[in-house]
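User: Design a sequence. Structure:
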């Protein structure tokens, strides 16, 4: 025999459980992907580091996130053939910086240019990118 009163209670509880699970999923995504913030929503020391490190580049996105229980700010810029990814700790210290910029083949250092010429020979080169990481390590990408 079916207990209709019990069945009605289950039906009423289901939407509540569904809503709660949706809220938990939304909460988890905000933890994983961080929160979008503006320059005015961060400590001055962080803002000063960001401005010093990216110069006049146009900020596309700023996320406040947690990294090993420490607040970090991740900044992305894009424009004029230069892309910058910057990660700054809550105390203002830069943790990661990657700058990618389009350059002309003639701007490659001579030793790199010789290697490219020898290895690629007569193939068409569409793009040359210089990649610079925090600490000054430079690499080149040839497409």
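Assistant: Done.
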């Amino acid at each position: 025999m079916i207990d209709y009163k019990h069945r009605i209670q289950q039906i009423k509880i289901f939407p509540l459980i569904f809503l709660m699970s949706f809220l938990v999923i939304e909460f988890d995504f905000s933890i994983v992907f961080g929160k979008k913030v503006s320059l005015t929503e961060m400590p001055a020391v962080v803002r000063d580091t960001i401005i010093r490190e990216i110069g006049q580049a146009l900020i596309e996105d700023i996320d406040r996130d947690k990294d090993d229980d420490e607040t970090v700010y991740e900044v992305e810029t894009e424009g004029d053939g230069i892309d910058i990814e910057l990660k700054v700790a809550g105390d203002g210290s830069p943790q990661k910086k990657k700058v990618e910029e389009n350059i002309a083949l003639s701007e490659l250092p001579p030793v790199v240019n010789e290697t490219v010429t020898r290895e690629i020979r007569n193939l068409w080169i569409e793009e040359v990118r210089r990649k610079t990481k925090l600490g000054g390590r430079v690499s080149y990408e040839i497409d």
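The domain at 34-97 is CATH 3.10.450.40 (Nuclear Transport Factor 2; Chain: A,). Residues 22-32 have pLDDT under 50 and may be disordered.
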